[in-house]
């Protein structure tokens, strides 16, 4: 008896390249099922979304606690949060027309969207749902996340020296080393992304 192989949510048939039929990828690293690899990537993305939500919620709380037109107080703003702020959060005062509170709320909402889509991707990959969600929505959204992370990091590089004393007082006080450290972590995260 011949049985059909499970599709694991991927319905694309063989691709013809120079006269030879190539089947879709069926395993990751030779031994893991492709749906488990997709689930693992989706879980990592859900963790990234949770970190974005946590960072922006902490920054909003810190800003609300100071009650000075949504400005931060350096003593309550420890170096762990400053480092995550530098690497993951939206840039501070990147536009005169956008308020700090609005930018942080946008970052919080972006983290919620990332988390929801990633958790739905986990669900579709682990339950073998044949919806095409992974190829049509999640993979392009993952590439968009990588591009947004890189653009935000580049925007922070432009004004890092101006805002370093106010927003990152516990990090390096030398502007050149702070910029280099940030650029190094940004390029590493994009390369590993």
How would you portray this structure in words?
By secondary structure, the chain is mainly alpha-helical. Helices cover 64% and strands 5% of the residues. The strands form two sheets. The protein has a two-stranded antiparallel sheet. A two-stranded antiparallel sheet has the order 3-4. Helix 2 (79-88) crosses helix 4. The longest helix is centred in the last third of the chain and has 35 residues, at 133-167. The radius of gyration is 21 Å and the shape is elongated.
Number of separate strands: 4
The main β sheet shows up as: 2 strands, antiparallel
Mean pLDDT: 78
Secondary structure tally, helices: 5
Q: Gyration radius, to the nearest Å?
A: 21 Å
Low-pLDDT segments: none
Q: What is the succession of H and E elements?
A: EEEEHHHHH
Please estimate the helix content: 55-70%
């Amino acid at each position: 008896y011949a049985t059909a192989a499970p599709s694991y949510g991927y319905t694309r048939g063989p691709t013809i390249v120079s006269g030879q039929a190539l089947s879709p990828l069926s395993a990751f690293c030779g031994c893991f099922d492709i749906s488990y690899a997709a689930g693992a990537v989706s879980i990592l993305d859900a963790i990234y979304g949770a970190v974005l939500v946590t960072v922006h919620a902490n920054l909003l709380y810190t800003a609300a606690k100071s009650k000075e037109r949504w400005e931060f107080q350096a003593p309550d703003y420890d170096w762990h949060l400053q480092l995550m702020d530098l690497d993951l959060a939206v840039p501070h005062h990147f536009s005169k027309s956008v308020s700090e509170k609005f930018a942080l709320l946008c970052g919080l909402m972006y983290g919620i969207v990332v988390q929801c889509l990633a958790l739905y991707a986990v669900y579709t990959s682990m339950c073998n749902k044949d919806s095409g969600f992974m190829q049509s929505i999640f993979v392009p959204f993952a590439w968009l996340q990588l591009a947004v992370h890189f653009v935000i990091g580049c925007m922070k590089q432009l004004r890092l020296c101006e805002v370093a004393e106010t927003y990152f007082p516990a990090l390096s006080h030398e502007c050149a080393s702070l910029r280099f450290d940030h650029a190094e972590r940004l390029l590493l995260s994009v390369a590993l992304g």
